[in-house]
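*** Protein under study ***
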Amino acid sequence: MAEGGKSKVWEHFTKDPSGAVICKKCAVSISQGSSTVKMKNTSNLWQHLKEVYDKAHKKTQQAQQPKADRATPQPTLQQVFDKTTKWPPNDPRSLQFDKLVMEMIATDILPYAVVEGVGFKRLMANAEPRYKLKTEKHFRTELMPKTHSQVVARIGQLLSVENAGDSIAFTTDCWSGSTEALMSLTAHFIDRNWDRVMLVFNVKAMEGSHTGPYIQELFLSMLDEWNIDKQRDLLVLRDSGANMIKGMRLAEMPDLSCGAHLLQLVINEGLNSQRVVVDLLARLKKIATHFHHSVVAQQRLAVIQKEVGVPLHSIIQAVATRWNSTLHMVQRMLEQKRAITAYSTDHGHFTCPTAEEWDVAANLVETLTPLEEITKEISDSDSSASCIIPSVGVLKRLLESRGPTSRGIQTLRQTMLESLQQRFSKVQKIKEVILACLLDPRYKERPLSPETLVQAKAWLREEAEKTPPTAAETISDGDEDEGDPKRQRVADQCAHSLLDTLYDTMLNPPSHAENQAPEGILEELERYLREQVIDRKKGNPLEWWKKNSSRFQGLSRQARRYLCCPPSTVPSERVFSTEGNIYDDKRSSLKGENAEKLCFLYYNLPLVDWKY
């Protein structure tokens, strides 16, 4: 720091013991203009520096200037004016903000009226005062249709044969809301990078009676709207409604019942087969209804939960359309058994289950828990139809095992087993399902019977003759280490469940007889089958095929085709959940056509990364 004060000039001067100011360079004594401290100044010091050491004077003066004085020049009047003037409507910056607001409305499921809300207007005025927010009508009637058309064009590019391949699987379902009835259509394929892609095509408004011929006509019109040749339709997943079945038959489409829906029918049939189980569930539902309809009851229960030391959890109520909600209800009731019993003793309102019924509830949970694990796997967005045959096989083994012995449970399990065999008997004979299982490196031929494997080989030979290799498929797609026959199956470090044990038993390697050496795609298949299956939970079949497609060029083409099929219509059902959110109280009068476009943008804008 400079001596004598803050001025930079003191870097060149100092004071002797008597208080006189001495120049450091020439040792000359310089007066400060007064002997009084308050009247002293540095004018003479600056003058001496200028006369004797001009360069040092200029440098010191520059350092003495405040930083603000050395900053950029003060903005001009025009620059100030530009910062406060509203952009014209067609200004590129204004159009970009319009685009972002429209995307926000679509992806966050917001009503158009949000742009006229006081809070949103204040936000935009503070974020960018130059942007003039458009009206609700502008976004609804002009920008939304324009955005929809642009995203449709972008999705059309993704559907090209070069990217999506020559086969596409579909899911379709019907839904009725308060103002509209809708039919959904989602598309599924594996692209050239071996990524699984799901597109929401349409959520089309339905009119009149939903008969089979009407569904046929509407379904085919949706395909025509996307210029999709029927030859590219690999499989259509649908629910088990008679009108849907008839519609697909009339459309001459290869179709398959939803695996999750069939499983729900199997489980519900078992639950309704035993009077003791029906009575137990009715009693538990009554208890759940009591707590859901009374805030006072919930508050009293919370006090009792603290007193008896059980978790402070709410009572779960069963939902008719989701069988696993019944399982969750029973699990929660068992967890809260002490609190519920204490509540019933203190406050009444319902009768608790007997000791025998609580025992039935515990055994019911033991029976249903593995079924929920399979339901989740079938409903997962990354699942393929390849999991259907292994899941059914494991469920058969599970239900054939002894299991709990409490009253009613054994009969319930036997009813489920018979229903499972009946409802899935046709599914396990469908070509697309069998080949998907065979070409999934997690399962291969292990869940298939010898007769089914023979038929699968014949189908593969036929498909190979119809789809010759392309030039692009002769190029190596990456590291082949994962396909090394010597590579051992990765052991799952997590604790094995009962299902895991049953899967391990099913997937044990079979013995391969040394017959006459096959040729072509069947030779590839034999090499493929001799290798170890990959881990069922950790292994990714698409990643495996991406790394090994150069070793199995014929099989990889078929794998890309058949592994794209989903095992259920859950993707379409999730679309309807989104539709329910779109038709909220603030948009109850929304037309079906506009709801369809908003739903389309909600799913497909993130898919194209908002680039269109």
